[in-house]
């Protein structure tokens, strides 16, 4: 039985994602629970990053921090977790190195590798292996008491494959490129395996209480348009095509789905032809041009200021907000206000408040 929760007091983001006309655009930002917030460091204490993800109590506390700080301005929570919990569940070790980011001590080497074959053969129990995420989602929904909807998420197959073979962040993507260009067939089998995992994982997040989901393809922009069509798009669309079917089997209602293919500006058209409801835009997109393309296909867009603008002070923030409001049709339909990528460390939380307030000011009559 799916858990029951209090009725929603604010469902603005869900209505906007479904394409309805709204009174103002909903607002949230990627990575809103993170290192720029002093209360994040306090609540995290000496706990390791993945320990925080695995503790429903800590994860729900961190998820709620921006909701409490920006009460009345922020319209969605996103569960505190990471895209790399899928490789972990598949049997890979991932550690978070302070000030450096994620590190896989033993990345996949080649398709002849013992580890690759073990991963391909292993049947992981998606429910049991990520039970801590579903528990964190249910607890967070209870603590939210209907204040704002809760977003669930996963990494996209291409981005996860890249991490699994690179062993961490990368500038040159030597291993990821070696895999897709030297071993395209073995790469596709792995991408498909990850895509199937994503469908089940997202369905179980929704069963636990997630009301909307986002798929993060953070490294989409490393691929050429034709490589994107071969190694990323089919797996993104597989998720959007199969998640609703899986929800139906589980007796659950479809929820809005967002795709974020960072850097793949050329892919806007293809994504607008997919079953995603919302296309998240980075700052390579001109708001007016992207809005025109997306609205012609009935899609909602999300984004898209350069997070770096938040280092630039109030005038810079006002200017980018005005450009977005004008480009995204005034904010009464088809726009979820966000940044073009996650908020970065050392941003002054009051500058994010000002960003939200300016969007509110220029979109409310
Ligand atoms: C690529 C990626 C990862 N994780 C994620 C992505 C996709 C989004 C993106 O492109 O930024 C997704 C993610 N990671 C985190 C969230 C939490 C929810 C939120 O507030 O948005 C989400 C949605 C927490 C986090 N994930 C991480 C932190 C910082 C951990 C810390 O040092 O305390 C947080 C709050 C660590 C992390 N996790 C990852 C990296 C590269 C890093 C290190 C670099 C960085 O911090 O920006 C992998």
UniProtKB/TrEMBL annotation:
GO terms for biological process: protoporphyrinogen IX biosynthetic process. It catalyses: uroporphyrinogen I + 4 H(+) = coproporphyrinogen I + 4 CO2; uroporphyrinogen III + 4 H(+) = coproporphyrinogen III + 4 CO2. Pathway: Porphyrin-containing compound metabolism; protoporphyrin-IX biosynthesis; coproporphyrinogen-III from 5-aminolevulinate: step 4/4. The keyword Cytoplasm applies. It is found in: Cytoplasm. The keyword Lyase applies. One of its GO terms (molecular function) is uroporphyrinogen decarboxylase activity. Keywords: Cytoplasm, Decarboxylase, Heme biosynthesis, Lyase, Porphyrin biosynthesis. Its EC number is 4.1.1.37. GO terms for cellular component: cytosol. Pfam families: URO-D. It comes from the Eukaryota. Residues 26-35, 151-167 form the Uroporphyrinogen decarboxylase (URO-D) domain. NCBIfam families: hemE. Belongs to the uroporphyrinogen decarboxylase family. HAMAP family: URO_D. Catalyzes the sequential decarboxylation of four acetate groups of uroporphyrinogen-III (octacarboxyporphyrin) to yield coproporphyrinogen-III (tetracarboxyporphyrin) with the formation of intermediate hepta-, hexa- and penta-carboxylate porphyrinogens in the heme biosynthesis pathway. Acts on a number of porphyrinogens, but only coproporphyrinogen III can ultimately be converted to heme. This is Uroporphyrinogen decarboxylase.
